[in-house]
Structures are given as C-alpha cells and as structure tokens.
Amino acid sequence: MTGKMNWGSVRDRDRIARNGVDSVADMGAPGARPAPKKRPAKAALRAELAAAQAKVTRTIKCPCGHEGTAIVPAAKARARLRCSKCGKIAQ
Ligand SMILES: [Zn+2]
What we know:
Order of helices and strands: HHHEEEE
Number of strands: 4
Helix content: 25-40%
Bound molecules: zinc ion
Number of helices: 3
Strand content: 15-25%
Largest sheet: 2 strands, antiparallel
C-alpha cells in the first residue's frame, strides 16, 4: 500500500462496526423538530375504556342448591367463583 491512509475514515468504519449506526429517519433532518407522535383517536380511547369497564352478569348455580347472580368485570367472566352459602367453587 503506497497511497496515503485516510485514518479518519478507518476510524469511522471501526467505530461503526463497534457501535452500530443510528437511523437517519429516526434523527430527522438536522435542526428540524422530531415528527409529532400520533395521538390516539378519542373514539379509540372510549372503546378501550368501555372494554375495560364492561360488566358481565353471571348466574351462578352451586351443587348445594344455592343460586345467585353476580355482576363481574368482563375480564372475570370465566373466573371460578365461590358459593356464598357453602364456600364451594360454583359453576
Ligand atoms: Zn353452595
């Protein structure tokens, strides 16, 4: 190798191999503000809230003969509940 070595680009190449590179798209244009984050639509937020707050009415029958209804969150619709009379797990 008889030409001059460009040590700056050698260092750059080593540094990039060692540390990786950041995406230019993530950085944005120099001096520019980052792109604003997309705000979720109010309808989407309302639907999410309604799903979280939804209640399910379950009728529970126990082998002991006791029967009752319970209003439970939708997330607990399939949960096993105990009978309030005998304490057994009811259907
Ligand atoms: Zn029972």
